[in-house]
């Protein structure tokens, strides 16, 4: 059987062969983005849409990464930016932001490290959280417009209709992530071209509604716009299930994190290979917004103390002190890596092209098998 059953309106909209989008992944690479130019290019070359994780870079690093990505493929590619809204704190230097963190929160971090018998690292890599601000994202957007990247995918907040208009004027397709039907409806009204329903299972930031429940509700709410499903989709079975729910495509992160190309360092990949269905937790303690990652003593201590997390990016900066210290001490198992519940399905690191091709081949088998199972008579 061919793979034509996988062809959806999303493929036509984006000019891609398969309705598989590799999710934008920032954090977790120590420096730079998990979905780096090499991963995004490999996915686009294989017929999906690769998406650069644009959030954790400085503006200069981001500009360079977009150029590298465009030099690696002439196929359509995407870029993910975040636009933290709500109570997010405006940007500033590391020192200025650190000054906004209450002393008792800093002491609490030291106490957790003390319990673990880990010394606070003296020199830490620059925290990616410095760049999780609306103003930095707006500067990156100018680069996206100039470079005419095919697709802008945004998450964690709302850039406003003027950003969507500017992207459209530059011929860029705009996709946005939603964790609730309400958000999806608002995004549609603002003029996005497609919406990703990101379920509770997802690695990184998402809402609290499971992919199975959220996807068909978002599909119905944004029609005739295409909706995609994200969260917990790691193989061909997940792909077919998403299509059965009415999704026009899938948004896959954790599976592509465990690829040869991703910038995730080897010990993080090993932690993910060892992880099971119960290894992750969703908490606000690593960034200030609900985020799924490996459960660690960090989560336990915050939960037990019933402490209110600080807003973006302050909580992330605080977590960075913990993360940088435990990783320097090689206490990797308590590092609280970002990944989704689907990680329990993944037991091999593969090239991105193979991941995509395996997903397509498995989807074809599942589709055929299901057809046979339900044949009348
Ligand atoms: C390591 C990692 C880093 C992520 N970083 C970002 C990010 O920077 N911006 C963003 O919008 N989503 C980020 N996400 C969430 C993904 O875009 C996507 O919604 C999620 O991975 C989908 O669920 P899955 O991991 O179960 O496939 C990240 C996810 C992972 C696993």
Which labels suit this protein?
alpha/beta, binds flavin mononucleotide, eight-stranded parallel beta sheet, three-stranded antiparallel beta sheet, globular, about 375 residues, about 40% helix
Furnish the topology, listing elements before pairings:
Layout: H1 9-14, E1 20-22, H2 37-45, E2 50-53, H3 59-72, E3 77-82, H4 94-98, H5 103-115, H6 134-147, E4 151-155, H7 161-169, E5 173-178, H8 181-190, E6 194-198, E7 204-205, H9 211-222, E8 227-230, H10 236-244, E9 249-252, H11 254-257, H12 266-274, E10 280-283, E11 291-294, H13 297-305, H14 314-328, H15 352-373
Parallel strand pairs: 1-9, 2-3, 3-4, 4-5, 5-6, 6-8, 8-9
Antiparallel strand pairs: 7-11, 10-11
Helix pairs in contact: 2-3, 3-6, 5-14, 8-9, 10-15
The structure holds flavin mononucleotide.
Flavin mononucleotide binds at residues 23-28, 34, 53, 55, 80, 82, 155-156, 177, 198, 201-205, 230-233, 251-254, 257, 338-340, 342.
Describe, in plain words, how this protein is organized in 3D.
The protein is of the alpha/beta class. It contains 15 helices and eleven strands. Helix 10 links the parallel strand 8 and strand 9. The model has no long low-confidence stretch (mean pLDDT 93). The structure holds flavin mononucleotide (FMN). The site of flavin mononucleotide has 33 residues, from strand 3, strand 7, strand 9 and helix 11.
């Amino acid at each position: 059987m061919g793979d034509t059953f996988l062809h959806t309106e999303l493929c036509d909209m984006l000019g891609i062969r398969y309705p598989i989008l590799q999710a934008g992944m920032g954090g977790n690479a120590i420096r730079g983005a998990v979905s780096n130019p090499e991963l995004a290019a490999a996915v686009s070359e294989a017929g999906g849409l690769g998406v650069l994780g644009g959030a954790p870079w400085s503006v200069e690093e981001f500009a360079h990464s977009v150029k590298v990505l465009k030099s690696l493929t002439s196929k359509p590619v995407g870029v993910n930016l975040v636009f933290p809204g709500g109570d997010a704190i405006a940007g500033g230097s590391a020192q200025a932001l650190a000054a906004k963190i209450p002393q008792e929160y800093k002491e609490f971090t030291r106490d957790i490290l003390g319990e673990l018998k880990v010394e606070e690292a003296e020199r830490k890599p620059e925290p990616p959280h410095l760049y999780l601000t609306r103003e930095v994202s707006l500067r990156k957007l100018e680069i996206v417009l100039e470079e005419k990247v095919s697709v802008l995918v945004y998450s964690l907040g709302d850039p406003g209709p003027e950003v969507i208009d500017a992207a459209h004027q530059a011929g860029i397709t705009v996709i946005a992530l939603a964790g609730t039907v309400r958000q999806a409806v608002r995004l549609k009204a603002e003029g996005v071209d497609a919406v990703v329903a990101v379920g509770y299972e997802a690695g990184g930031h998402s809402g609290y509604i499971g992919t199975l429940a959220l996807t068909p509700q978002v599909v119905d709410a944004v029609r005739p716009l295409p909706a995609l499903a994200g969260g917990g989709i790691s193989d061909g079975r997940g792909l077919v299930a998403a299509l059965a729910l009415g999704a026009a495509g899938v948004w896959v992160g954790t599976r592509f994190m465990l690829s040869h190309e991703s910038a995730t360092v080897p010990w993080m990949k090993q932690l993910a290979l060892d992880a099971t269905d119960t290894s992750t937790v969703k908490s606000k303690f690593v960034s200030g917004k609900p985020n799924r990652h490996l459960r660690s003593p960090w989560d336990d201590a915050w939960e037990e103390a019933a402490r209110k997390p600080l807003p973006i990016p302050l909580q992330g900066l605080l977590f960075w002190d913990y993360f940088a210290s435990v990783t320097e001490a090689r206490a990797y198992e308590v590092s609280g890596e970002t990944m989704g519940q689907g990680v329990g399905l993944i037991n091999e690191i593969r090239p991105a092209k193979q991941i995509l091709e395996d997903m397509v081949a498995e989807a074809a088998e599942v589709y055929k098998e299901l057809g046979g199972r339900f044949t009348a008579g």
